[in-house]
């Protein structure tokens, strides 16, 4: 699937709850895993591939997972780190995020989860969840920290979250 850039209206749209956990959803998730991997991202949300549903995928080094219909119930602490976005190539900036959060969600089969996530996983969850509301990291970036990186650094800058 083609990853849309920030100029596409889908990136500024609201998304709908998923009610059917069918073959179409499984195919969407599989295709999103592939696009995330190709883009060297740690996360990817459905609006980034033009699908206005409450779905995102992530992989923080423990294999790909799908998150459907997420809700955050509790957020704690604050941490500032560099982020990028697959829909805004090569741009990076520092974004404050909750350090830990408790979330409820479903996977692509409809199975329900309730977990507390922290660090990089918590950051990816917040970045991706924002995409489900048409919010981009540039809306939350600390002024003056936005900068462009070289194309090759997209793959090699390890501290940055590109999602
Ligand atoms: Zn993003």
What does this structure look like?
- It is a single chain.
- The chain has a single domain (9-162), classed as Peptide Deformylase (Alpha-Beta Complex), CATH 3.90.45.
- 20% of the residues lie in helices and 33% in strands.
- It has helices spanning 23-38, 119-131, 153-156, and strands at residues 43-45, 55-58, 65-76, 79-85, 88-97, 100-106, 112-118, 147-148, 161-162.
- A hairpin with a 6-residue loop joins strand 2 (55-58) and strand 3 (65-76).
- The protein is globular.
Q: Main attributes?
A:
5-stranded antiparallel sheet; 163 residues; binds zinc ion; 4-stranded mixed sheet; Peptide Deformylase; 9 strands; 3 helices
Question: Helices, strands, pairings?
Answer:
Layout: H1 23-38, E1 43-45, E2 55-58, E3 65-76, E4 79-85, E5 88-97, E6 100-106, E7 112-118, H2 119-131, E8 147-148, H3 153-156, E9 161-162
Parallel strand pairs: 4-9
Antiparallel strand pairs: 1-2, 2-3, 3-6, 4-5, 5-8, 6-7
The protein binds zinc ion.
Short description:
This protein is an alpha+beta fold and about 160 residues long. It is built from three helices and nine strands, in the order αβββββββαβαβ.
